[in-house]
Design goal:
Chain lengths: 331, 219
């Protein structure tokens, strides 16, 4: 039996306008679990907007976004109205995002930058668990009290030792139930766990010696590596990279690209918007070339880079190649 | 008959005046700092009517002299509602707190709007609530940014306390002027300057200290 693999992410006919400017004109693609998809194309072709729509930093005007079997976003041409924020917050957790400008939190150390989302999530989950437990406890006690009441009236009618015992037993049960507490980690334990996790993530991006540094003390490449660790922290199903090396000096791009290669694994799905053609060709399972808000060409790296079909792709690739030649010449 | 004016008695009077100056200063500061935050939220809300109401209010408060506001606050209950203020100090404090909260709100707003959008977005994509983004990410950065203008405003507040004399609060300058008028001596007036200089000097040191404390990171 050949099992058709279901894609992890499905995007269909995604459209986005900024006023009169159509940035995305109906984009459809899918990504399988563990795949790396690179999106290339010239500036203004809608690559970044596409990532921002996936992360709900922009609300698309039309289209479908589906992760595993859950529809995160669906809108027809006729539908309108805003998602409420609570929903968006949960949906966002499907995606991680690495920004062009890193966007680290300047007042926190490297370690705390990665810890913060873990810590807030852990705390919130703990509170939810406690609240659910307390609600159940309250209901239990209510029921037990009703039972006690009927036992008491029973005892009033018929003052036997047995009935008295039953009343006493019920009273004890209520007291016991009142004394129970939700089985959750203490805040201190959560903090400790969070710290271990964050340290581990920072080791993965090769920054175990910079845990206590502040962002301004790090190079751009190091900052971006922290941002990558931070994006991995909440274990999103898909990590998006928005031109992760565009703000870096050429000598720093290498270390960031290496880290992205290192974190590649069977379970990690990534979407990378990039101008680093050789990197994209090397790392990706799938390439999308975007031009003017549509997908001009899509395929495996060898299909897109070695045998481009669309004239626009050809022109784009030729231009970037020329740039490389020029760069080489100046070196 | 000539009455010898002892330095001690004048100094004592000035100290009493300075007491009022300090009361006005500290209470205004303590109350207007949080009130300013509330006004700022009004000024940046997306709910248009509240936004324009707040902006209009801030415009009026910043657009008229504090002295006028003190007088108006003091006379309104008595003349319009026949329930005059029992305490002149209370009237002064109300006017000061409202006035300074409005100035602070504008400083806060400047700080808030100087935070790059990317900081919010980084928080949102990490699943944070708006309130978490504000308290865990943005607030500390705002505080760092607004410290210099806040220091400025706070030193102004020290000197503005002298406006309280307009409704006969005997604060430092009023106290000194009484001495001058009563005894025909000029030095108490100069002496008030020393009070202000020392107090503002201390505040300057304090703000410098806080700024240094926050120097461990850069925005």
């Amino acid at each position: 039996m050949s099992k058709q693999e279901k894609p992890l992410l499905v995007v269909e006919n995604l459209k986005k306008n900024f006023g009169a400017l159509e940035v995305l004109k109906g984009v459809s693609f899918s990504v399988n679990k563990g795949e790396i998809l690179s999106i290339i194309g010239s500036s203004g072709s809608g690559k970044t907007t596409l990532l921002r729509c996936l992360n709900f930093l922009e609300e698309a005007d039309e289209g479908l976004i589906q992760v595993e079997d859950e529809v995160l976003f669906f809108k027809d041409a006729e539908q309108s109205g805003k998602e409420n924020f609570q929903n968006i917050r949960e949906k966002r957790l499907n995606f991680g995002m690495v920004f062009q400008n890193f966007n680290l939190f300047p007042q926190y150390t490297t370690l705390k930058n990665v810890m913060l989302p873990l810590w807030l999530q852990g705390k919130e989950r703990r509170e939810k668990k406690i609240a659910a437990f307390n609600l159940e406890k309250k209901n239990n006690i209510k029921n037990l009290k009703l039972e006690l009441k009927s036992l008491k009236s029973e005892y009033k009618k018929n003052k036997t030792d047995e009935n008295l015992k039953a009343v006493e037993a019920k009273k004890q049960e209520i007291a016991l139930t009142k004394g129970t507490k939700a089985d959750v980690l203490s805040l201190e334990e959560i903090k400790q766990k969070t710290k271990e996790e964050a340290t581990n993530l920072l080791c993965q991006v090769g920054l175990s010696d910079k845990l206590e540094s502040y962002p301004f003390q790090l190079s751009g490449g190091q900052q971006q590596r922290v941002a990558i660790a931070r994006a991995m922290a909440l274990r999103p199903k898909i990590i998006c990279f928005d031109e992760p090396t565009s703000a870096l000096d050429p000598e720093l791009t290498g270390e960031v690209l290496k880290v992205i290669k290192n974190i590649k694994s069977k379970n990690r799905t990534m979407i990378i918007v990039t101008h680093e053609m050789s990197f994209a060709k090397d790392i990706s399972d799938k390439i999308i070339f975007m031009a003017d808000g549509i997908i001009e060409e899509m395929g495996t790296p060898s299909e897109v880079f070695d045998n481009p079909k669309s004239p626009k792709t050809k022109a784009f690739l030729l231009k970037t190649e020329e740039n490389y030649i020029c760069e080489d010449a100046t070196l | 008959m000539f009455v010898a004016v002892s330095f001690a008695s004048v100094f004592n009077d000035l100290m009493n005046g300075f007491g009022y100056t300090l009361i006005i200063f500290f209470i205004t500061l303590i109350l207007s700092v949080p009130l300013g935050l509330i006004i700022m939220f009004g000024a940046v809300t997306k709910f248009k009517p509240l936004k324009w109401l707040t902006k209009g209010f801030v415009w009026i408060i910043r657009g008229t002299p504090l002295m006028l506001q003190i007088i108006i606050v003091f006379y309104i209950p008595g003349l319009l509602f026949n329930a005059p203020f029992k305490s002149r100090l209370l009237a002064v404090l109300i006017a000061f707190v409202i006035n300074y909260a409005c100035y602070f709100s504008e400083i806060y707003r400047g700080g808030l709007e100087s935070i790059p959008k990317g900081q919010y977005e980084a928080g949102y994509v990490l699943g944070m609530k708006k309130s978490q983004v504000f308290f865990h990410i943005v607030l500390m950065q705002i505080i760092k940014r607004i410290l210099p203008p806040m220091g400025n405003e706070v030193t102004t507040l020290v000197k503005d306390t002298s406006l309280a004399r307009v409704i006969m609060i005997v604060e430092l300058i009023q106290a000194a002027q009484f001495q001058t008028a009563r005894h025909g001596i000029i030095w108490p007036l100069f002496f008030t300057g020393i009070f202000y200089l020392i107090f503002i000097g201390l505040l300057t040191l304090l703000f410098g200290y806080i700024e240094r404390k926050l120097d461990y990171y850069k925005i």
